[in-house]
Amino acid sequence: METRTTAACATEPPWCSGSGARVTTSAGRLFPGVNNPPTIDTTNPIMSSLCPFAKLASAGATCPVKSSSDNKTTINHTDDDDDDNEKTGNANTDPRVVPPKCPFGYDSNTFKLGPLSCMVCHALLHQSSKCTPCSHKFCKACILRFKDCPLCGADIQGIEPDDELQGLVDRFIDGHARIKRSHAAGDGEAASDNKTKVIYEDVSMERGAFLVQQAMRAFRAQNIESAKSRLSMCAQDIREELKSKQDNQELCSQLGAVLGMLGDCCRTLGDAPSAITYYEESAEFLSKLPKKDLELVHTLSVSLNKIGDLRYYDGDLHSARSYYARSLDVRRSAAKEHSAVASQVIDVATSLAKVADVDRNLGNESMAVEGFEEAIKCLENLKLESGEASLEQRRLSVLDFLQKQLDDK
């Protein structure tokens, strides 16, 4: 097989870089708060900035931000809930409501880098590891790249797992991002150990947004295992909710986006079979939804193209063409309904280039030329406004590739 570089491979990289910002935009829409500091949803009476761990903390414990004499991290929780209620205007005296105190020193709606964060990837610690002799702590994957401590500059003589700290991180995630509600008890309620229903008033970001945010931070810092772990948790939680809300389009959209991101993680790790599995499942969920949402259309078409890319590089050109053609059909339909959206026209031209490139490699030169010419016509007829410089740059890039393909015939 003659190896060629397709136009779309350059225009549709994984979700953390390049045009991946478009996929990030999708994640931001599906999981509000992902790209911005999380805010409290005041329209939902069940949600406020309260911590479900509050009752786990003892009154006389020590804040994890501070170190005790033996350097052990403990939990701090002072008995000043009444003051917080006055500040927040919360006069709720319902004993079932967990008071707004986080024993870890912060809550998820005001999440900042802290004792549970890695200073390299800026995400929550994953496989927490301690450097010796300085005892600074990082994600295992992050610190393995260094010979000197990134914080103090000391020579790293060894790296030891910190299971105790990782346990705190896992508890923080379980409380702030993975609160399980009992469907039988109704929304916003969960049963405590003593069978008393407790209303957890945290979940300060939309469900799943916190985990996606942490995954994206880790992915950008090349801590792929951390990103994959957080996204897997998110996907698991959405699947659980879908069991009782099978026709919920928002949940299906969220799961489709998360599965696509998991595919990117596996692809980056070199696990092509797993990547294809995630992309196919992503496409399956997204294909069930109405194609009126342009972000959904983009996410679906990109997942199909990524499967095609992996099949292409594996030498299965017929399978690759099938997925590229499906993506093209999705984009054609969207372009017909949204003919004024310039990005849709460029997406169609990109998909035409992918299909034509495979046709050429399969020996169907006439079909390839026809596809390249149609794509060129689409881009030449596209008129952009002066303020659309980024789209113009992308249009010219794809157009240049297409013209070179015809010059090579």
TrEMBL record:
<dbReference type="GO" id="GO:0008270">
    <property type="term" value="F:zinc ion binding"/>
</dbReference>
<feature type="domain" description="RING-type">
    <location>
        <begin position="118"/>
        <end position="152"/>
    </location>
</feature>
<dbReference type="InterPro" id="IPR013083">
    <property type="entry name" value="Znf_RING/FYVE/PHD"/>
</dbReference>
<dbReference type="GO" id="GO:0061630">
    <property type="term" value="F:ubiquitin protein ligase activity"/>
</dbReference>
<keyword id="KW-0479">Metal-binding</keyword>
<dbReference type="InterPro" id="IPR001841">
    <property type="entry name" value="Znf_RING"/>
</dbReference>
<keyword id="KW-0863">Zinc-finger</keyword>
<keyword id="KW-0862">Zinc</keyword>
<feature type="region of interest" description="Disordered">
    <location>
        <begin position="62"/>
        <end position="96"/>
    </location>
</feature>
<protein>
    <recommendedName>
        <fullName>RING-type domain-containing protein</fullName>
    </recommendedName>
</protein>
<dbReference type="GO" id="GO:0016567">
    <property type="term" value="P:protein ubiquitination"/>
</dbReference>
<dbReference type="InterPro" id="IPR017907">
    <property type="entry name" value="Znf_RING_CS"/>
</dbReference>
<dbReference type="InterPro" id="IPR011990">
    <property type="entry name" value="TPR-like_helical_dom_sf"/>
</dbReference>
<dbReference type="GO" id="GO:0005737">
    <property type="term" value="C:cytoplasm"/>
</dbReference>
<feature type="compositionally biased region" description="Polar residues">
    <location>
        <begin position="65"/>
        <end position="76"/>
    </location>
</feature>
